[in-house]
Amino acid sequence: MFLIILGVSIVLQFTAALLSLRLIKITRKWGAWGFIAAAMTLMGARRLITFYHVISNKISYSPDFSAEIVALCISILMVLGMILIVPIFRKIQATNKKLLFEKFSIDKAHDAIYWIDQNSRFLDVNHTACTMTGYPRRELLNMQLSDIDSEFRTELLEEWKRQQNVTYETDLKTKNGYSFPVEITASHFFFDGNEYFCLFANDISERKQVEKSISRFSHILEDSLNEIYLFDADTLKFVQVNGAAQRNLGYTAEEFYELTPVDLKPEFTRESFEELIAPLRSGEKQITVFETVHMRKDKSLYDVEVHLQLMKHDREAMFAAIILDITDRKQANEQLNYQASHDTLTGLFNRHEFERRCKRLLSTIKEEKARHALCYMDLDQFKIVNDTCGHTAGDELLRQLGTELMNSVRQRDTLARL
Asked: Could you tell me the sign of the dihedral formed by the alpha carbons of 295, 212, 169, 126, in that order?
C-alpha cells in the first residue's frame, strides 16, 4: 500500500511539473512557473529515489505512512489547482489578445480618436491622432483639447453631456502651426463611476476643397440655373438638356434622350399635351406659359412655371422650354394666403375670413334653403389672466382654448377668433 501511495505521489508531482511548464508557455512568465516546475521536479525526484530504496530494501527505517498520505493529498491538490487554473489563464490570454487586436485596430483607424476627461485633458489617443496633429503620444497626453482646437470652450462639454452624441466641424492645429478642417463626433459615457468623452475626428480637407470648387462653379452658373430643354416637334423626344435639368431631375443626358416632356409632367397625357401645344404648331401663339408639376427620377414632385415656344431652323422644327422652379413662390403664396385668412396666435380663421364666409352664406341661403347656426362666445375676465399671469400666459390660454374648440366642431364648420 505504501508503494502505491508513493508511486501516485511521484506521478502527480511530475504531472504538476509538466503543467507548470505548460503555464509558462501560456502566460510567458518564466520566473514564477519555472521555480514551481523545478520544485515539483525535485520533489518528484526525491520521491522516486525513496521508491527505489524501498523496493531494493536499502532503507533501514520504516517510512512515515501518514506523512506520505499528506504528501499525496498536497500533490493531488496542486495538480487539481493547476488543471483548474489553465483554462483561466487561457481565457486571460484570449482576452489580452482581443484587447491587443482592438488597440491595434484603433491605432490603425482612419479617424483620429481622442479620449478626454471632464477637464478636457487627453487621457489617451490613437496613432492616427498623433500622425494627424504631428504631436508624439507622450506630448499629447500632457495637453488639453483647447491646445489643438482654438474654438473649443469648456461649456461645450455640458452640451455634449445633454446630447450624448454631437457632430460638428472645426479646425485642428498641428504641431507646426498648420490648421486643417475636421468633422468631430463627440460621445459622452461613464466608466467605473467616472465620466469621459470620446472624440472621433475625420480630416475633411479634401471634402472642403471639393465643396469650395462646387460652390465656386455654382456661383458662376447662378444666373443660368433654370432648366432648359429642346425636344423634337414630331416625336417630342428630348434632343438636348442643360446641366441644371440633369441635376434637378436626376437623369443623365442619355436617359433624357429616351424621354419626352410628358414623362416629366404627371398632370399631362400625350393627348392633353398635344392639345396644349397645338396653338404653337398652328402659329396662333408664339409662346405658351403655364404652371404644372415636374416629377424627378426619384418620383418626387415640385412646382414649375413652363415657358414653351416652337422654333424652326433649316426646315427642322423644335420646341424650346425654359423651366422655372416656383416651389418657393408657391409656398410663399400659400403662406400669405394662410396668414390672410387665419389668426396668427390661435390658428383659427380671422375676422376677415369669417365675414367673407358669412357674406357668401347669406347670399346663397335663400337658394340653398339650408339652416345654419351662429354661436358667439365671449371669454369673461380674460383681462385678469393677463394682469396677474402676464400676456404670455394669456396667449397660451387662447391657444389651448382654440385647440379645444377645434376638436369639438366638425370639419365643415367655421371657427374664428374675432
From this structure: positive
Q: Residue 306 has which C-alpha cell? A: 413652363
Q: How far are the Cα atoms of 145, 181, 207 from residue 214, in angstroms, in the given order? A: 32, 17, 10
For the chain, how many helices (H) and strands (E)? 16, 10
Query: 219, 222, 254, 217: which is closest to 239 by C-alpha?
Result: 254
C-alpha cell at 374: 351662429
- Taking residue 350's Cβ as centre, other Cβ atoms within 10 Å add up to 19
Question: Does residue 286 sit in helix, strand or coil?
Answer: coil
- Name the pLDDT band for 381 (thresholds 50, 70, 90): confident
More confident of the two residues 186 and 6: 186
Q: Could you tell me which residues come within 8 angstroms of residue 387 by beta carbon, excluding any fewer than 6 positions away?
A: none
Determine the pLDDT at residue 170: 92
Each residue's pLDDT tens digit, 323-353: 988 888 887 877 777 777 888 788 788 888 8
What is the tens place of the pLDDT at every residue in 194-208? Answer: 888 999 999 999 888
Rounded to whole angstroms, the Cα distance separating 294 from 323 reads 10
Torsion of CA 295, 299, 303, 309, to 10 degrees: -10
Q: Are 173 and 150 in contact (CB under 8 A)?
A: yes
